[in-house]
Specification:
Helix content: 40-55%
CATH architecture: 3-Layer(aba) Sandwich
CATH superfamily: Glycogen Phosphorylase B
Number of strands: 5
Strand order of the largest sheet: 3-4-5
Largest sheet: 3 strands, parallel
Length: 147
């Protein structure tokens, strides 16, 4: 599935290309919860979005970034995302590798997430309780593998 951007210029560029492929379904943009569910149901995420580069690894999904650079270099360094650019042959090659090589897939899907373990709110509540003298502080976050 390919959620289409609302920008008419983006649609005018993307739709003619995507409509040629019977295995690509274009859909309207999703709300946040629906989009997270779609990422969780995906095997691989291809994106240019910085936010998605942070979210998808938390779901244990490899991310191929369709850009030449990223404002999330720590994700590339950690190995949760791979910059593949916009060359169609390279994109296909990288997707094929992740589809055909379980070790390559696991190397990205199970690597420690540089953005934390998803327990920040729990730690914040515990820290406040500790400051108030009514609870124990939790250990600091350590990056963890996606779930």
């Amino acid at each position: 599935m390919f959620p289409m951007h609302r920008n008419p210029a983006v649609r005018a560029t993307m739709l003619p290309v995507l409509e040629k492929h019977s295995n690509v379904l274009t859909i309207e943009p999703l709300d946040y919860v629906q989009f997270i569910h779609l990422q969780k149901a995906s095997h691989i995420v291809l994106t240019g979005s910085g936010g998605v580069q942070e979210e998808a690894p938390s779901l244990g999904r490899p991310v191929l970034v369709l850009r030449e650079n990223t404002e999330r270099p720590e994700a590339a360094t950690a190995g949760t995302v791979r910059l593949v650019g916009t060359d169609a042959d390279r994109i296909v090659q990288e997707v094929d590798r992740l589809m055909d090589d379980p070790d390559a897939y696991a190397a990205m899907a199970q690597v420690a997430n540089p953005y934390g373990d998803g327990k920040a709110a729990e730690r914040a509540v515990a820290a406040i309780e500790h400051l108030l003298g009514v609870g124990e502080r939790l250990p600091d976050s350590a990056p963890s593998a996606g779930s």
